Amino acid sequence: MFTTTGSRGLYKAPLSKGLLLVLSGLTVMLALLPQYQELFVYDLQAVTQHHHQVWSLFFGRLVCLDVKDSFCSGLLIYNFRIFERRFGTRKFASFLLATWCLSALTDLLLAQAFHFLFDYEVEELPAGLLAPVFSLFVPFYRLIPRVPVTQVLGQIHITNKSLVYIVGLQLLTSSPFMWLLALSGLIAGALYHSNVLWMQKLLFVPACVSFIGRYILEPIFSSSQPSSETPLGMGATLEIQRQQRMDVLDQQLLLAQYNESTRNNRSQPPSGLFGWTRLFSTLRQRGPNRPPVRPPPQAQTQRSTQSPPSDPSPVVEEQVALLVEMGFSRSDALEALTASNNDINMATNFLLQR
Q1: 20: exposed, middle or buried (Cβ count in 10 Å: 0-12, 13-18, 19+)
Q2: Do residues 7 and 231 make contact, with C-beta atoms less than 8 angstroms apart?
Q3: Alpha helices of the chain — where are they, by DSSP H?
Q4: For a Cys staple, 27 with which of 70, 263, 324, 353, CB 3.0–4.6 Å?
């Protein structure tokens, strides 16, 4: 379901871990103590008409009152931890803070526009940190490459991002006015990610706050490095880490393209509704009942003289021989070398991961 970048779990993602634990814990506590839920209701009417209840704007946009919304938003935060690893905790916190502020203003504007167009006043909206979660779909769509994983019914392509969008769609359809929060979050994420009006320089987490969080909160929510896997993208500097992650993504893209080309070359359209030739593979190779007609020897000699076979380059032939000696077939070796641009190491990885 989740993007295969970096280590699994919440390693190098203390802010994401803190949001998951604290917000989920508060949701469970409010479910057990319903008499305190009215303090966390996102009441737009109370914010606009009663200015002394501005605190409901803060608490109402922080903790989810619905357990289902908390679960879906938690899954999305866990998946979007990749941005905290890639850009750092401070930039990730700045993105959440800026989109929280921008989406709060956008919520009020969209509610007023809805009231003006349809003469219906929106009083309450779903509570929780929902708009900033929806805003993270903007960098997720723009920055994370789409790697094909499999196909359904031969037409529908399933990628490494499909299930994430399905969870977002589930969260979008959980309540009637969730679309307003989603639209608000997408607008705020697009504005901040595009740096409209230099928002990234105006809305950010100060260095002093980041320093306090690094030495007080980060030790509490930090996770140990997983010992059951090889660490990816953990170089000495940020540039090395980003280059390592980009190399991993490039390998995933090349591997996906190689697997897709292999399936297209080897797959044949099924005959009939159920594809009986898949069940009887010997019938698929018989062909028609008449014996195959062989061309006369003169035609073969003329064809050979007109188009002489092109000899492969010595380097490619040596690489093919090396892969054949390792136990792979010649056709698979040729396909892997073609997909990897004659890179013997990448071709070997392709063949081993099939």
Answers
A1: buried
A2: yes
A3: 14-32, 44-49, 55-60, 67-79, 81-87, 89-118, 131-135, 137-143, 162-172, 178-193, 199-202, 207-212, 218-221, 238-266, 276-279, 281-284, 297-306, 314-325, 330-339, 344-352
A4: 70
pTM: predicted TM-score of the whole model, two decimal places: 0.67
79 pLDDT above the threshold of 50: yes
Buried b (16+ CB within 10 A) or exposed e, 88-127: ebbbbbbbbbbbbebbbebbbebbeeeeeeeeeebeebbb
Distance CA 344, CA 352 (A): 12
Token pair of 225 as six digits: 């490095």
Question: Average pLDDT in the 248-277 region?
Answer: 58
Angle at CA of residue 108, ends 107 and 114, nearest 5°: 90
Partners of 151 in the β-ladder: 157
Confidence band for 3, pLDDT divided at 50, 70 and 90:
very low
Please list, in sequence order, all residues whose beta carbon lies within 8 angstroms of the beta carbon of residue 219, skipping any fewer than 6 positions away. Answer: none
Q: What is the pLDDT of residues 112-148, one digit of tens each?
A: 999 999 999 998 999 999 999 999 999 999 988 887 8
Q: Strand 124-125 and strand 42-43: pairing?
A: antiparallel
The per-residue pLDDT for range 212-230, each reduced to its tens digit, is: 998 888 889 988 876 655 4
* Residue carrying the six token digits 């991002």: 161
Strands 148-152 and 156-159 come out as: antiparallel
Q: Identify the residue with better confidence: 256 or 207.
A: 207
For residue 266, the one-letter residue type is R
